[in-house]
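Record type: monomer structure entry
Structure origin: computed from sequence
Chain ID: A
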Amino acid sequence: MSVSYNGLWKMLIDKKMYKKDLAAELNISSATMAKMGKGESVSMDVLERICDYMDCNIGDIMCFEKEDKEGTSK
């Protein structure tokens, strides 16, 4: 199973924000942002800060995607 942050990226586009703006506003490290860009897990603390800032629920910014037998996400 892989993590998708597509909901967050779409929210940023809608608010005309860049990933670097979010990182600076919430003091999120570039390494954590890179992990999110690669679909890797990050701490609940980071996700909670993002949800609080964006006034949303965790399901709005991320989801889990099952991978098929070839290893690609569905």
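Annotation 1: The chain has one domain: 2-64.
Annotation 2: Helices lie at 6-14, 19-26, 30-37, 44-54, 58-61.
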